[in-house]
Amino acid sequence: MEWLTDILSQYLPILLAIMAGSLILAMILLGWIYWRVRNIDLPPDADFKTALQHTPFVVVLFLDLLDLSLDSFSVPITWVVLSRLGLAPLRGVTALEGVFPGTQFIPVMTLSWLAVRLFGSVLKR
Predict the structure, then answer these.
(1) In whole angstroms, how far apart are CA 56 and each of 19, 22, 39, 59, 64?
(2) Residue 90: which of 76, 102, 79 has the closest Cα?
(3) Confidence of residue 30 (pLDDT cuts 50, 70, 90)
(4) I need a labelling partner for 76 at 20 to 30 A (CA). Which of 44, 63, 67, 101 fits?
(5) pLDDT in tens, 37-76
(6) Cα–Cα nearest to 96, from 29, 48, 44
């Protein structure tokens, strides 16, 4: 049991610093998003792929940073932000990612955004 306290005392401050830093950066990005992006006009029948094609990178970076810092507690915040930005098709994936604990270290939205940008023409609708 002593090894556990050694590990926690060594790595917990680093983990908390990473989480705090990502939360601060996410809040800065949120301000910039509301100032610059405001609202994204999607077609009425937009799916996840179409929404990601219209989404600026800073939005998906914000979503992943918020998930990294708050994990499951980020779900209501991302739901409201995506609703206000007009990105309703992205809400389900971000909520699903936020519900599963331990996925905060995987930048799912950033990887999805990159996949759609790189392989968008190959991906089926």
Answers:
(1) 23, 19, 11, 6, 13
(2) 79
(3) very high
(4) 44
(5) 888 889 889 999 999 999 999 999 999 999 999 988 999 9
(6) 48
Average pLDDT of the chain to the nearest whole number: 90
Residue with tokens 């100032």: 35
3-state secondary structure 58-119: HHHHHHHHHHHHHHHHHHHHHHHHHHHHCCHHHHHHHHHHHHCCCHHHCCHHHHHHHHHHHH
Angle at 73 between CA 70 and CA 75, to 5 degrees: 110
Query: Tell me, what amino acid is at 120?
Result: G
Taking Cα atoms as reference points, which of 73, 64, 78, 81 lies closest to residue 18?
A: 64
Q: Is 11 helix (H, G, I), strand (E, B) or coil?
A: helix
Q: Given this model, what pLDDT does residue 125 score? A: 56
- The percent of residues above 70 in pLDDT, for the chain, comes to 98
Cβ partners under 8 Å of residue 32, min gap 6: 58
Task: Count Cβ atoms below 10 Å from residue 70 Cβ, excluding itself.
Answer: 19
